[in-house]
Specification:
Blueprint lengths: L2 H12 L1 H13 L8 H13 L3 E3 L9 E6 L6 E6 L13 H17 L7 E6 L8 H7 L8 E3 L2 E3 L10 E10 L15 H15 L8 E8 L10 E10 L2 H22 L2 E6 L10 H13 L18 H5 L3 E3 L2 E3 L8 H6 L3 H21 L2 H19 L1
Parallel strand pairs: 3-4, 3-5, 5-11, 6-12
Antiparallel strand pairs: 1-2, 2-4, 7-9, 7-10, 8-9
Helix pairs in contact: 1-4, 1-11, 2-4, 3-4, 4-11, 6-7, 8-11
Length: 391
Amino acid sequence: MNEQKQKIIYAVEKIRETMCGLAHEIHRDPELSFNEHRAAQRLQAPLAAAGFTLTQPLAGLETAFCARFDTGHPGPRLILLAEYDALPELGHACGHNLIGTASVAAALALVNSGTFTRGSLEVMGTPAEEEGGGKIIMADAGVFASADAVMMFHPREKNMMTRGALACVDAVFKFYGKAAHAASAPHLGISALDGVIQTFVGINALRQFFTDDVRVHGIITHGGSATNIVPAYAEAKFLLRASTVGALESVRQKVFSAASAAAAMSGARLEIEQGLTYAERNNNLALAGLFQRNIEQLGLSADAAPQRGGVGSSDIGNVSQITAAIHPYLRIGDVVPHTPEFAAAADSTAGHEAMLNAAKALAMTVIDLLDPASLQRVRDEFTAWKTGEAQ
């Protein structure tokens, strides 16, 4: 380990208590997608004190921000991503309190240690990863267009340097029927709820024809107001996933056709609202290799990622279509995301330790990218992937 990386480790350790406190504060005060006002301010405060230039709002999003440190010397534009939205009812059951704080800690270590000497470093605050796709909106606004590399970490039950992610899109099916007294005049009504139920039946009938990568899951968000009234309005929300955006389109067509058929069967009118499409993830292996070597220098080992199954979706996939990106995972315990147990682990000693190790490894990887040869390997891989995609 060279002297610069030793300085990074020392700099992270020096702010250990402050950063653990920051992660705890965000954890105990969860905010939902696009409403993460307090979390965004908490993450920006230490960066402002360290001399970063702050911009908020960003890309039209009130809780998106950019904290930028420019050395004034030619070099790469490197971005550390911060997430900080929570889940309804479960709070930080995906560990975004750790993600945002790790990127802030890495940036502070780089600047405080004097090791970041060329180019510019940004902590990009990206809201609404859980629902809304903040990074997609920011990507479409050109925020990442000139970045040389983008990095973040995610807590998990294993140390995994690369892991795929599915393309996904959410859809809300709104059925409009006609109210009637369910006992005395049911024949005068049109049940919007029947439209929702038949949508579930139709989608379940499709499952045997989906490929193994496809996931379709939904909930009924409104099913009526009283049992003795034929529901005039009913609503269901679904999340559709597939291995690629192209494969997702086929799934979307089939699912939407099932909902349309359900509307025809029930006599209800159907409206469909779609969210933004989360793209599949393109892991930059050269960049992931740098991160892995730094993790190993910290005394951790990398676990093999499962070859099949066990993946979700994230809007960093859209960023990875634009520039070189990594999204490694570090272990915080034997816990599964989006559960109360994971939320507890995200505010545990093990969770904080993983966050600090992530901060060190992210900052050390930034140092690696200041070497022109290392950066060129990362950029060459991305260019080759992008060129192959276009053919």
